[in-house]
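Preliminary data (for renewal application), BJW complex.
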Amino acid sequence: MTRHIFVLTGAGVSAESGLGTFRDKAGEGIWAQFDPMKLATPEAFAHDPETVLAFYDARRRNLLSAAPNAAHTALARLEATLASAGGELSLVTQNIDDLHERAGSQRVIHMHGELLKARCLNCECVHLWPEDLPASESCPACRTGGLRPHIVWFGEMPFHKDEIEQALARADFFVAIGTSGAVYPAAGFAAEARALGIPTLEINLKAADNAVIFDAARYGPASVIVPAWVEEVTVGLGGKI
Ligand code: BJW
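Predicted structure:
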């Protein structure tokens, strides 16, 4: 029986909450409208902090007006059900939004950081930051350093690498939800799971770049497919995972 499920989520899980994806339909993803090299790299921030900060201010405001959808809620329910049956859910997200938490998930591993946090360039202290972040702002802790969004940009090391590897090694089922499989290292997790002998499932609107890696797939909107899958995993096994 499945007792430890590893779930990797991407932008597709938050798409129906009104948050843009990055590489979806031609001309509609965030990176089709904006050049990631000018907005999501440490070099871009060093060169033009105002432009980078304005981009994240707009994304932060959009996030604050968004709400979790049925996929987020179902994953929170899965975490609680697994825990009450002595199992475990490892929820690793590439998303910088807080919609999993707002849906009730207790433990979310944000491998690409969090939009509602800022980090000091000097002391590296991380602060909750739900407001606009002006370039002139200094760290509330050390008062000397400037602040940057607490986000992993291209060329930077994703967070929680060891914890993620350990969770993957403990898992007995791997699910990727709403992610294109275009960005590493997350895009490699399904292959790592397979190499460990863990069954893999893709949930997506359409086949991702790395679809061939998965043992099974369910295609459709996350708000429909995820609750149905969670229902199967929990009720289908008589409430016992
Ligand atoms: C639905 C749906 C619905 C829609 N229901 N589904 C060449 C080869 C291999 C690697 C590299 C390479 N060149 C460079 C690299 C490394 C690089 C990388 O992978 N680049 C690729 C582009 C090739 N990776 C990195 O740099 C990472 N760091 C790293 O590797 O460190 C190593 C290192 C070693 C030594 C020294 C230093 C470092 C860091 C990556 C950081 C990614 N950051 C971003 C931006 C975050 C901030 C922000 O939000 O602005 O993270 S990029 C962006 O992509 C964001 C996402 O988390 C990430 C993944 O995107 P995601 O979630 O998959 O979204 P989409 O839009 O791509 O897909 C959406 C999916 O949803 C689609 O499949 C839809 O079908 C689906 N969908 N609606 C269900 N309703």
